[in-house]
Amino acid sequence: MKRFLCFLLLILVPLFTPCIGYSDLEVLLKLKTSMYGRNGTGLEDWVASPASPTAHCYFSGVKCDEESRVVSLNVSFRYLPGLIPPEIGLLNKLVNLTLSSSNLTGEIPVEIAMLTSLRILNVSNNVFYKSFPGKITLGMAQLEVLDVYNNNFSGSLPTEIVNLKNLKHVHLGGNFFSGTIPEEYSEILSLQYLGLNGNALSGKIPSSLSKLKNLKSLCVGLKSLDLSINNLTGEIPESFSDLKSIELINLFQNKLHGPIPEFVGDFPNLEVFQVWGNNFTFELPQNLGRNGKLKILDVSINHLTGLIPRDLCKGGELQILILMNNFFLGSLPQEIGQCKSLLKIRIMSNMFTGTIPAGIFNLPLVTLVELSNNFFSGELPPEISGDALGLLSVTNNRITGKIPPAIGNLKNLQTLSLDMNRLSGEIPEEICRLKTLTKINFRANNISGEIPASIIHCTSLTSIDFSQNSLSGGIPKEISRLKDLSFLDLSRNQLTGQVPGEIGYMTSLTSLNLSCNNLFGRIPSVGQFLAFNGSSFLGNPNLCSARNDTCSFGGHGHGGSFSTSKLIITVIALVTVLLLIVVTVYRLRKKRLHNSRAWKLTAFQRLDFKAEDVLECLKEENIIGKGGAGTVYRGSMPEVGEFGDGVDIVRWVRKTTSELSQPSDSASVLAVVDPRLSGYPLAGVIHLFKIAMLCVKDESSARPTMREVVHRLTNPPQSAPSLLAL
Ligand SMILES: *[C@@H]1O[C@H](CO)[C@@H](O)[C@H](O)[C@H]1NC(C)=O
Ligand SMILES: *[C@@H]1O[C@H](CO)[C@@H](O)[C@H](O)[C@H]1NC(C)=O
Ligand SMILES: *[C@@H]1O[C@H](CO)[C@@H](O)[C@H](O)[C@H]1NC(C)=O
Ligand SMILES: *[C@@H]1O[C@H](CO)[C@@H](O)[C@H](O)[C@H]1NC(C)=O
Ligand SMILES: *[C@@H]1O[C@H](CO)[C@@H](O)[C@H](O)[C@H]1NC(C)=O
Ligand SMILES: *[C@@H]1O[C@H](CO)[C@@H](O)[C@H](O)[C@H]1NC(C)=O
Ligand SMILES: *[C@@H]1O[C@H](CO)[C@@H](O)[C@H](O)[C@H]1NC(C)=O
Ligand SMILES: *[C@@H]1O[C@H](CO)[C@@H](O)[C@H](O)[C@H]1NC(C)=O
Ligand SMILES: *[C@@H]1O[C@H](CO)[C@@H](O)[C@H](O)[C@H]1NC(C)=O
Ligand SMILES: *[C@@H]1O[C@H](CO)[C@@H](O)[C@H](O)[C@H]1NC(C)=O
Ligand SMILES: *[C@@H]1O[C@H](CO)[C@@H](O)[C@H](O)[C@H]1NC(C)=O
Ligand SMILES: *[C@@H]1O[C@H](CO)[C@@H](O)[C@H](O)[C@H]1NC(C)=O
After folding, report:
1. CATH 3.40.50.1980 assigned to 1-148
2. Most CB atoms within 10 A, among 78, 212, 225, 639?
């Protein structure tokens, strides 16, 4: 009853606080109960103690003043799936309130308006929904930080905050706010950070935002402007030249057009400039980087052209240079090759000409160099080092000369793509020093000589493509010792000799092409060879299929595992057919269900990456936007990796599932299944997954019989169909 009265008082007499008989201790306990909801955790030390009326000052996350009133409350990274109760308004001495990353939900109670001493209001990374009640901020004259990033707020952006004279940091990103950016935001002259990224905003960028500049010497002016991932249109306003304090500009993934104004190159403190995924045209400002502070430049996927400014790395700070998918011309400045701070260079799909600056192959920290689909010419430099380089792609240029032996110095190289160039000479033996190399692609060059048998020292290889060259000699039988190799294409060369029967034992090999060579003899008919049809051996006039009795050459006599292999193949084929049937049935059924929420991962630019890396990216702190486009994750995508073409799926699945910290059927399936299947019942997919894994057991005795497989498939477990929650 006392509580009820108190609550009435709270509503009727907002200024009459603290409530008589309702101490901060009691409010905190009320908060705990409400935020715990059904099964919250993380505030176990918040317990009443009749003996000590100030016990609450020692609760985790709580700080009091001398009068034992709570001045600071920080409840972050707990599991609190409940609501914030209206009683929070009674903690009216609060200065810092952080309720972040705790699965809190419901609406923001309007009683928060009573916390008029607040400097920090941080409710980021929760699932609060409905509109953000802007009017609660009207009395918070001291408010400096308003962080509601990554919630489910919708409606229009709050305009009430423009009255707050001390507001420095406003983050409203990662919500579902729609409409336009209020012109009034330009009146918050104290503003240093404005984050509106990842909403569903439309309209133009208000040119008045330029008022957020260095007005008085005391006032710093806007440092960060993040409007990425919205639906903004128009050009970068000319008035923005006033934003002299700006350090970060993120405008990526909008529908902006026009030039990138020259004044962007003149901002004295600009460190980060990311405008990818718009429709910007013309040239980059020639002064860009001249401030000596530029760290991150990403202008990819626009219609930019012209030369690359010389001074991008003038200050030796540039770490990320991404220019891909534009129409940039001319040669890459030599200065880029001297930029020791660089971590990533991605300039593919432009119209660059001239030689590649030699220094690029010697940068100490660089992990990723992607130069493909340009018109670079000249030779690769004889000196190559770079301990960090994981991916080097020069695909589809006009590079001539030999592959330099120094490529063997790149001790962390995982992907080497030199395909579609004009390289000649032999494959250097030094390549075989690359223990971490997983993919090597020399396709469509004019490389001659033999395939070095020492390639077996590249023990991590999963993919070899040497097709369309002038390789001669035999296929080294040692190649069969590459236990992870799943893709081998040696087609269109001048290879001779017989097909080594040992290849039949390469259980990981899923794709083989030996077409258009001068191989002879009989194609072995054992083991893995059964997985390949005639199109793997076309254009070898003297090579005959295993069944051709008139063949003039002898067979290889590796018939040992013939029948078992054949059986496995049949079983796999059958399981596949049945899987297809089951999937089709589910699909038909699903159509009748309501359209389920599709799960969408917008990768941050196309790049090879492993599934683990994707999972790694799916952390809340990496969410850069939700809004109408679905959740978008900021992937700090790894340098290299391979998941896709030519990977042995069985191995991959085994590896992925064995690395789960808490293995279970559903965890395994969720870790490996294609997200596009999110509409299928989890139990059904687990069932199929288990059968599939049984069928690929190493020992034949452990595999189920055909009868068992049919029985299992036709008798799925009965359970409530919970959809795959991805
Ligand atoms: C709390 O309960 C919900 C469903 O009621 C469940 O999804 C969640 O995993 C539970 N959380 C904890 C930490 O037990
Ligand atoms: C509030 O947070 C600010 C910044 O973190 C800090 O400087 C200040 O001391 C805090 N105030 C209280 C009362 O905890
Ligand atoms: C709040 O607490 C979390 C850990 O619980 C900590 O990481 C964070 O820095 C704290 N924030 C403030 C403003 O004290
Ligand atoms: C709680 O939130 C975290 C991160 O925001 C999320 O990963 C987790 O799934 C949520 N827990 C529940 C039970 O919703
Ligand atoms: C809000 O709180 C979270 C978690 O404590 C923290 O990571 C974030 O930096 C805070 N926001 C601001 C603007 O300080
Ligand atoms: C928040 O938004 C997501 C994405 O639209 C939705 O799946 C979820 O149900 C919403 N949660 C709440 C509590 O509104
Ligand atoms: C980009 O701009 C060009 C002309 O400037 C226009 O033809 C084209 O349709 C625009 N593309 C997009 C995706 O807006
Ligand atoms: C390929 O290299 C050989 C010498 O190894 C040369 O005779 C031939 O003309 C080259 N072909 C092309 C297309 O460059
Ligand atoms: C042969 O196998 C390849 C894939 O390895 C497949 O694309 C092709 O359709 C098959 N051809 C025949 C005739 O079965
Ligand atoms: C092998 O290469 C030849 C020639 O490029 C091509 O016609 C054939 O389809 C390829 N076969 C396979 C299985 O990829
Ligand atoms: C069998 O091989 C001979 C040459 O070795 C060839 O002429 C003949 O066409 C082949 N027959 C079949 C059915 O492939
Ligand atoms: C952007 O605008 C288009 C129409 O102009 C609309 O179809 C689309 O859903 C909008 N996207 C977002 C994220 O609001």
Report:
1. no
2. 212
